[in-house]
Amino acid sequence: MTETDATDHRILTILQKNGRITNAELAQRVNLSASACHRRVQRLEQLGVITGYAAMLDRRSLGRPTTVFVEITLSGQATELLEGFERAVRAIPDMLECHLMAGTADYLLKLVVRDTEDFARIHRQYLARLPGVAQMHSSFALRTVAETTALQL
C-alpha cells in the first residue's frame, strides 16, 4: 500500500468527484499552496494512485440505457484456456467490465446496450464465439439503484 496522508486523501476525494478542478481551486480547498498541491498530485500520479482522468458519460443520452450482466463458466481452468478467453473477451464492444471470479461463475461481464435486440446481436457476434465457454447466464438490470466510481478514503 502506498504511503498517503490525510491531505492526499482530501485531494483524492475531491479529484474523484471533479477531475477537471483547477489546481488553484484544489489547492485552496485542501489548504495548500498551488505549487505544493501540484507536487502532491504529480506524486500521486507517479506512484500510480491516480491512474488517469476520464469524462463520465450518460449512457442513456448516448443510446445505451440497458445494463446486462453476463456470468460465464468455462469448460476448464487451464492457463491457455483462461488466456484465450481473456484475449477474446477484450474485443467485445460496449463491455465496460470483465472480472475473473471466485464462486459459481468464472467470469462476470458488465455490458451496456441499446436494447434486447442489440444484446442479441452482441451475443451472436461475440459472446457465442468466446472460446472455452461451458455455460452462460445473462441478467438485465431493471434499474440502477446506486453507482459510483469514487473509492471511500
Automatic annotation (TrEMBL):
<dbReference type="InterPro" id="IPR019885">
    <property type="entry name" value="Tscrpt_reg_HTH_AsnC-type_CS"/>
</dbReference>
<dbReference type="Pfam" id="PF01037">
    <property type="entry name" value="AsnC_trans_reg"/>
</dbReference>
<dbReference type="InterPro" id="IPR036388">
    <property type="entry name" value="WH-like_DNA-bd_sf"/>
</dbReference>
<dbReference type="InterPro" id="IPR019888">
    <property type="entry name" value="Tscrpt_reg_AsnC-like"/>
</dbReference>
<feature type="domain" description="HTH asnC-type">
    <location>
        <begin position="1"/>
        <end position="65"/>
    </location>
</feature>
<dbReference type="GO" id="GO:0006355">
    <property type="term" value="P:regulation of DNA-templated transcription"/>
</dbReference>
<dbReference type="InterPro" id="IPR011008">
    <property type="entry name" value="Dimeric_a/b-barrel"/>
</dbReference>
<keyword id="KW-0238">DNA-binding</keyword>
<keyword id="KW-0804">Transcription</keyword>
<dbReference type="InterPro" id="IPR000485">
    <property type="entry name" value="AsnC-type_HTH_dom"/>
</dbReference>
<dbReference type="GO" id="GO:0005829">
    <property type="term" value="C:cytosol"/>
</dbReference>
<dbReference type="InterPro" id="IPR011991">
    <property type="entry name" value="ArsR-like_HTH"/>
</dbReference>
<protein>
    <submittedName>
        <fullName>Lrp/AsnC family transcriptional regulator, leucine-responsive regulatory protein</fullName>
    </submittedName>
</protein>
<dbReference type="GO" id="GO:0043200">
    <property type="term" value="P:response to amino acid"/>
</dbReference>
<dbReference type="GO" id="GO:0043565">
    <property type="term" value="F:sequence-specific DNA binding"/>
</dbReference>
<dbReference type="InterPro" id="IPR036390">
    <property type="entry name" value="WH_DNA-bd_sf"/>
</dbReference>
<dbReference type="InterPro" id="IPR019887">
    <property type="entry name" value="Tscrpt_reg_AsnC/Lrp_C"/>
</dbReference>
<keyword id="KW-0805">Transcription regulation</keyword>
<dbReference type="Pfam" id="PF13412">
    <property type="entry name" value="HTH_24"/>
</dbReference>
